[in-house]
Amino acid sequence: MRLAAHGLEFHAQGRAIVADVSLQVQPGETLALIGPNGSGKSTLLRLLAGLQPRGRGQVLLNDRPLQRMTRREIARCLAVVEQQAETSDSLTAWQVVQLGRTPWLSALSPFGPADADIIDESLAALGMAGMAERRWQTLSGGERQRVQIARALAQRPQILLLDEPTNHLDIHHQLALSRLIARLPLTVVMAVHDLNHAMTCDRLAVMSAGRLVACGPPRDVLTPDRLREIFRVNATLLTDPADGAALLRFHCLEEK
Amino acid sequence: MTGATIPALLRRLAARAALGALLLILAIFAGVVIGETPLSPALIGQVLAHKLGHMPLPADPIDAGIIWNYRLPRTLVAAACGAGLALSGLVLQTLVRNALADPYLPGVSAGASTGAVAVTILGVGAGSIGISAGAFVGAALAFALVAALARAAGGGSAQLVLAGIAGSQLFNALTSFFIAKSANAEQARGIMFWLLGNLSGVRWPDVGLALPVALVGLLICLWHVRAMDAFSFGAGAAAALGVPVRRVVAVLIGAVTLMTATMVSLVGAIGFVGLVIPHAMRFLVGARHAGLVPCTALAGAVFLIAADIASRMMIPGQVVPIGVVTALVGAPGFALILIRNRRLA
């Protein structure tokens, strides 16, 4: 599913958190949103999902404006995983993932065995099958993150919006999640802090002070000048002799 | 949890519904049988057969009158109020995501008492409206004010809690002001008694109001069980899961206001049912609303019938206000829940 946005804006306390952002994401493409803290990545993701109150601009899903769709229609196309998810309810991991089936269920199409299978598959895809009966409150930060991503997969969306999905994850699960996302036939937009992780995505969008300052393939976007200007680091591009993959090594600007 | 077929699910559902109905009927039966004048279960059968089946009445007409005109309507209203208040508490706790939310959070009970005082002491309506109508109008007004304030403050759940505190304080102060200014000792005592909850004046017309309101409230809640589940991670998460949050909140809060204002106007502000029963049910049946909503309604109904029986039997020859009984049982119950909660965490 194609995702397009025109003139997205959000102001809070007279300050532009996101200012005039337009972008297009092709079906199946993975776009990484990068930028320093407070550059507007999370707000942009919420604007793309139509979840930011008082947001302005237009979002199109396959040329259909978000404003003309019901929340249920949107939730069937597009799933969001925010950075924080907290509940005081005593729910098991399985029950949290079950919430992902909400947009597909109604009085006429109640929860059935097919839904249960989707939940089991989603948990298994995140390596959480063995923890289905664990209570949310007993899960670690990384496990909660994986349960929320499994919940998003259980929505069976065509577009996935992820806010720092590898946050809290150990290195094994970071790599496993990157591989899973790369394999999924979904359109993905995710906010990422790890620039080496961003290097593996199809395209990068660089946010700075609420504006989209660059968008394109990783090698074109992550130039030494831009890294210095926006991220305030010096970087050396290294090559892994094993497979020729590019790798960034960073140095503090002040030290050099 | 997985792989159950639809007919099996329906069978299980029917079995549970039958069990719930049986419990409720037993509780109503107990509410009618137990009282200061002991009445035999056989007599109840005769009275019901007489009233509903036009059979001849072999029993004493005074005993029959106690059953039909006094205990049966009282027990039915207790059941409806218990169910309505417990459901209201559950819905507010879910939507506001605050464990301390109860049906009186949006200022409803405070507004009801102000309305009741305005009618009885200040003579608003010049005798044309009763204490219940006054209480209902007061409750609705207070809620409208609190909702408007919460909206003006930003519209979040924290804003509703704070606006509810402001509204409750304002209306409680108004009530005290009116009592201090105009009431004689007898009136003040009457108001106090009414505020603590009182089922002794209940007759059949009250049943005609309380039962349909409780049933409509229950149906609205049952229709929204999945949407309420989606609120587990907050309103934003519910919206992301496809729930039309504004509409669902408006419908559910509307149902809560209708139920609470009706129940308070009929029997006074009975506390603790709406706060404690939903928590107790979460421990017993889990956090999913498909089970929680019917169980909370049932438990609220049974609990308030039991509290009504206790209020009649606790001191011989005297009726203890039912709000005192619910709090006497509810406060230790709540303490237990808090302690258990800590152990689980």
TrEMBL record, chain A:
Query: Is DNA damage set as a keyword in this record?
Result: no
Domain ABC transporter positions: 3-234
InterPro entries named in the record: AAA+_ATPase (IPR003593), ABC_transporter-like_ATP-bd (IPR003439), ABC_transporter-like_CS (IPR017871), P-loop_NTPase (IPR027417)
Sorted alphabetically, the keyword list is:
ATP-binding, Nucleotide-binding, Transport
Family named by the database record: Belongs to the ABC transporter superfamily.
User: By what name is this protein known?
Assistant: ATP-binding cassette domain-containing protein
| Top-level division of the source organism's lineage | Bacteria
Residues in coiled coil? none
Does Acetylation appear among the keywords?
no
GO MF term (any one): ATP hydrolysis activity
Q: Which organism is it from?
A: Paracoccus limosus
An example of a Pfam family matching this protein is ABC_tran
Automatic annotation (TrEMBL), chain B:
Q: What is its main location?
A: membrane
Gene Ontology MF terms: transmembrane transporter activity
Residues crossing the lipid bilayer are 13-34, 76-96, 116-148, 160-180, 202-223, 230-249, 255-277, 289-307, 319-339
Pfam families attached here? FecCD
Question: For this UniProt entry, what's an example GO CC term?
Answer: plasma membrane
Q: Which domain of life is it from?
A: Bacteria
Q: Report keywords, A-Z.
A: Cell membrane, Membrane, Transmembrane, Transmembrane helix, Transport
Q: Where in the cell is the protein located?
A: Cell membrane
Q: How does it sit in the membrane?
A: Multi-pass membrane protein
Claim: Transmembrane is one of the keywords in the record: yes
Family assignment from sequence similarity? Belongs to the binding-protein-dependent transport system permease family. FecCD subfamily.
Which protein is depicted?
A: Iron chelate uptake ABC transporter family permease subunit
